Amino acid sequence: xxxxxxxxxxxxxxxxxxxxxxxxxxxxxxxxxxxxxxxxxxxxxxxxxxxxxxxxxxxxxxxxxxxxxxxxxxxxxxxxxxxxxxxxxxxxxxxxxxxxxxxxxxxxxxxxxxxxxxxxxxxxxxxxxxxxxxxxxx
Length: 138
Known about the structure:
There is one protein chain. By secondary structure, this protein is mainly beta. It has a domain at 33-72 and 87-124: Immunoglobulin-like, CATH 2.60.40. Helix content is 7%, strand content 33%. It contains 1 helix and 7 strands, in the order H-E-E-E-E-E-E-E. The chain has one helix at residues 21-29, and strands at 33-37, 41-47, 56-61, 64-71, 90-97, 108-112, 115-121. The strands form 2 sheets. A 4-stranded antiparallel sheet has the order 1-2-7-6, with no helix packed on it. The relative contact order is 0.20.
């Protein structure tokens, strides 16, 4: 059950709808994404329609992949009435935490048909350091 903040008169505070507005706005502006894994590694895909390769920055730091960039707006005025626009423009940034067995040095990215695909291979399993110990009679 969600509790509403109320002032002394019992009415909800006027700013309640705006408390989480920043987070909701950021989610709305961020590109939609998917993340999956298989035996070979990890794949992250992001929808970036209208974003050119040179407008995307991909960094890997401290076990996290960050994709950021900006979708530029282009508008041509020809004297017609503008009714609405449902297209989104502006900066975006998404960060994804990599599992400990991910190999950040293997990261690759490809932008095709407005979809960015980031692949990161799994590290090779560490060689076993187990050894047999002979038990002596005491």
